[in-house]
Amino acid sequence: MPKPVVAVVGRPNVGKSTFFNKIAGKRISIVEDQPGVTRDRIYTEVEWLNNQFTLIDTGGIEPKSDDIILSQMKRQAQVAIETADVIIFMVDGKEGLTASDQDVANMLRKTNKPVILVVNKIDAQHFTGNIYDFYQLGLGDPLAISSVNGLGLGDLLDEIVDRFSDDSGDDYEEDRIKVAVIGKPNVGKSSIINTILGEERVIVSDIAGTTRDAIDTPFTQGEDKYVFIDTAGIRRKSRINENVEKYSVIRSLTAIERAEVCLIVIDATEGVTEQDTKVAGYAHEQGKASIIVVNKWDAIEKETNTMNTYTKEIRNELSYMPYAPILFVSAKTKQRIPQILETIKFVSNQHALRVQTGVLNDIIGEAILLNQPPSDKGRRLKIYYGTQVAVRPPRFVFFINDRELTHFSYTRYLENKIRDAFGFEGTPIFIEYREKGGDE
Which residues bind GTP 1 (predicted)? Predict the structure, then answer.
């Protein structure tokens, strides 16, 4: 079940980033006493009372500003609002109600989404009178907090989780493979889906960001059922230095949450960009099966070993997901497009693969004989036994004598041995250690 998305919006300099950092427990957003500092949405995963959700920080909204940067910030905040399940509308309790607050409130009322009105900077008694002015916004009872001092944050988090819908989300059959098609705008995501479907089901244009919202397209081939989730870009309205692709990240994140398999589409003419690594990294962290699809391969001049060289570059840039198959395709010429469905089905099965405990421990035993576990100050790591505790993604628990003796390199070694024995192609696998009493 995908995690709800909570967006923090409001005009510049009301304390959104300070609040975000307080909830996240670390300084993620840049905090500076100057309007417009937070240029890009930033997200963090939050858990409160056993409820998990994604919190988005946004740049401030200046609805009537002609400033290019502020208009871009308004646009990215709108994307966050459209994507969010719950919206926190933050206002400044010291400054009081402003005309810009009224304009933002008018924008939010049109969304028909749960909006929590939060009055920030109420850190002194003489500011409490300002709270009542905000009833004029018509968004219900204002909730007073102080992000700097951490006052009222628990009540706000309670209010957030109370607003989450009980709707479980997708109504698709369990045997339908949900596939998120993710990547920067204009890399050919919609074209790939249309080519697979054999019909124009998704609008295709050369303008970056034609797909405004995530679009679900169910598809059946023989006995195999799929649903493709196409993710939106943002239309480029002006030539500025801001990286417009960043504005589509949150839609990609929510699509990844819903999916079982991710097609990470890369433009062959551009190679792996920073934005590609961010989106792919999130798919990896969320434990999704993944396929790297290099589109527009027809536009690349081929020489000896061109594909091998390109593969090495991708493996280097996306070093954390060596398990992901790479397909070089062209939606334009339909080159290797049929392999996409075959590979989706294959990695979906690998994602759900379960290994018997006895066979797993035979493999781990052999791995230990070939390469002894690490030791420290005369004490060696002992692995008593392992078991697989989950699928989609595959998770393993190893019972050991001392967690402090574990080392990343040995964990990677064990992971490679498991992959050599069982496959798990296209899916991350996760290994957890638990201490168990035993012989030192």
Answer: 10-17, 57-61, 120-123
Same domain, 375 and 309: no
Binding-site residue numbers are: 10-17, 57-61, 120-123, 183-190, 230-234, 295-298
One-letter amino acid of 126: H
CA dihedral 59, 63, 68, 72 (to 10 degrees): 40
Where a domain ends, among 162, 191, 220?
162
Cα atoms found within 13 Å of the Cα of residue 82, Cβ hemisphere only? 19
Q: Tell me the pLDDT tens digit for each residue of 231-248.
A: 754 333 333 334 344 445
Mean model confidence pLDDT for the chain: 82
**Least confident interval from 22-31, 53-62, 311-320:** 22-31
Same domain, 17 and 137: yes
User: Which positions make up the binding site for GTP?
Assistant: 10-17, 57-61, 120-123, 183-190, 230-234, 295-298
351, 381, 406 - which closes a domain = 351
Question: Long-range contacts for 168-171 (Cβ within 8 Å, ≥24 apart)?
Answer: 168/1, 169/1, 169/2, 169/258, 170/258
Range(s) of the domain holding residue 324: 176-351
- CATH code, domain with 136: 3.40.50.300
Structural domain count, the chain: 3
